[in-house]
Known about the structure:
By secondary structure, the protein is an all-alpha fold. It has helices at residues 2-15, 20-33, 36-51. It starts with a helix and ends in a 13-residue tail after the last helix.
Amino acid sequence: MARAIFEYTKTILEKVSFDKNIFKRELAKANKLLLPHERQELIIWFKKFTKAKPELMDLEFILV
């Protein structure tokens, strides 16, 4: 079940990436909801995802 939440979180983040404020809010929710090892995976995913969307790169501080 936990893996499903992680995948769902990534899907939501991809869908809201058009709006930086919504993306920031969803990223903060994910950071609270996910398990520690899932947060590490999310950081890796975030770095790959934001290469194509540099306007979101400065939100990495939320995951630290």
